Amino acid sequence: MMRARVGLLAGVLAVVSSGWGQAMPASAIPAHGPAVVLFDGKDLSQFDTFLRGRGLNSDPLHVFAVENGVVHVSGHEMGYIVTKQTFHRFYLRAEFRWGDGTFGERAGQARDSGILYNIQGENKVWPRSIEFQIKEGETGDFWMTDGAALTGADGKRVTGPTGAALNIGHIGKGPQQNVVGFRNSRGELERPKGEWNVLEMVVEDKVIHQYVNGVLANVGTDPFPTEGRILFQSEGAEVFFRNMVLYPLQ
What we know:
The chain has 250 residues and is mainly β. The chain contains one helix and 19 strands. Helices cover 7% and strands 45% of the residues. It is globular and about 45 Å long. It has a single domain, classed as Jelly Rolls (Sandwich). Strands 1, 4, 5, 8, 12, 13, 15, 16, 17 and 19 form a ten-stranded antiparallel sheet that branches. Strands 2, 3, 6, 7, 9, 10, 11, 14 and 18 form a nine-stranded antiparallel sheet that branches.
């Protein structure tokens, strides 16, 4: 594992210098156990729901719905679906695509969602965790929320303030504009709106790698926390998720 890890970190330096990514090598995925299917295309039985102002498992407006084998997140309220199970050291793969609307405090702004993992503490918007950011122009960023911490590829450690969050931008990221439909002029990792995007992460005790559409987007070391639940956000934008599968690392 140490040899593979050194090779990956060397690849990060090459990506930083080129300002773009590389195809995800199969060797980047450590040995793992059988798949844990988080969403089987039929129901959300592996998850609880949480919405701001409503609490746990109260979703009268169906912010989260299963439609044609896909999780449809309306984005009308802030919240998430969160795994009932806690995970430690894993490879996660999921796909997303944007819908149309933006709502509430995020109306007219860049479409925003995310996958938060290693979640600790109470359910709230947003719990202590590390986030795989999903946002127009920023997909692949790290966000550290409510005391979570991570050291970026530049060696700087970032800790999310209590009740707030701080980010580490993805490799090669250009200037951001917080407007709906934004696509970055440099380092854009998303496919055009309406197409499915593949997100992958390898979460270990000492290092985390995030990939967008096969491209290494970000790497961080010495994460805190190192285990917890996993959530998929509703953050003011319509978004769809599918093929959400986790593989525990051996």
